[in-house]
Amino acid sequence: MSKAHIPTYDICSLAMEKPASEDILVARFSDYLAAHPDIRFPHRHSFYHLAFFTGGAGSHTIDFERFPVKAGQLYFMIPGQVHSWFFEGKTEGYVVNVSAGFFTAFLQDAEYVERFPFFSGVSTEGVVQLPRQGIAAIVALFEKMLEEQRSAEFYNHDMMRLLMLEMFIQVSRVASKGKTRQDPPHSHVLLRNFRKLVEQHYMQLRLPKDYAALLYVTPNYLNAFCRDMLGKSAGEIIRDRVLLEAKRLLINADMSISAIAYQLSFADNSYFTKFFKKYAGVTPEEFRKNIS
Fold it and tell me: Which residue spans traverse the membrane (predicted)?
């Protein structure tokens, strides 16, 4: 497989059994790796991707942030994120590939799953380390999902939905333990809406005041809110999204720096290069050379 571009996989293209489901795949990690040896290279998914490690070593990179693989780690990735891995020795655990629509026919609130903090699309927020005493309960849920996937019982997909939602809730509770405060629900709604707007408009809208207007708040309030919730200003969050997309595009060796600058709505190649060097620490050419 060429590494000059980032391939995007759908669930059926990574199927392991016939007939393939277009909505969900649950597999043991070792079986998944054996069936798809080339997916260690950078790639995207058109679905939600969950990886749970119960054993192994090495590293897992999500959107150019590298994490050491450890037992008890859960990785939650949303559609479009770029990831790759390099494992050392035998890797054990579970993989779940699930479509965005898997829950919509089951839940009245179509955005329910997006409320879980690990589905924010931010790499560091999508990695959860379970305490040793909590691993067995999550393993049991994955084993039940595997059993339901193999079964021909009525409502087996609904049972898998219930098991997965139980897992999301349990992991969310673990991830929130030790927090010194509990933010009010409306704060999470505003943050989620801001991030969704950035995802939709970062190519064209680069100023906090543009998003503040869409959210019916003042720019000062939006900046203060983002600093309180994330430790970053609204402008930094917008900038980080532009920088991430630049890195994703630079993997495609067939795309010129000028073409990337144009696609990202920079006035010229020079401005894009200065922007990238300032915030990535290297020029676009150096970044491309380092990842090739």
Answer: none
Question: Residue 91, SS3?
Answer: strand
Closest residue by Cα to residue 174 from 144, 147, 136: 136
Superfamily of segment(s) 185-291: Homeodomain-like (1.10.10.60)
Q: Does the predicted TM-score (pTM) go above 0.90?
A: no
Mind giving me the DSSP string for 168-229? HHHHHHHHHTT-S----HHHHHHHHHHHHHHHHHTTT--SHHHHHHHHTS-HHHHHHHHHHH
Residue 48 bridge partners (DSSP): 98
Strand 8-9 to 44-45 pairing: parallel
- If one counts every other C-beta atom within 10 angstroms of the C-beta of residue 86, the result is 12
Q: What is the mean pLDDT of residues 123-145?
A: 94
The CATH H-level (homologous superfamily) assignment of domain 8-176 is Regulatory protein AraC (2.60.120.280)
| pLDDT per residue as tens digits for the range 43-72 | 899 999 999 999 989 999 999 999 999 999
Give the pLDDT of residue 174: 85
Listed by start position, the domains of the chain span 8-176, 185-291
| Angle at 63 (CA atoms; ends 38, 111), nearest 5 degrees | 105
Rounded (5°) CA angle 162-112-122: 110
Is the pLDDT at 292 greater than 70, yes or no? Answer: no
Helix and strand numbers (H, E) in the chain are: 10, 8
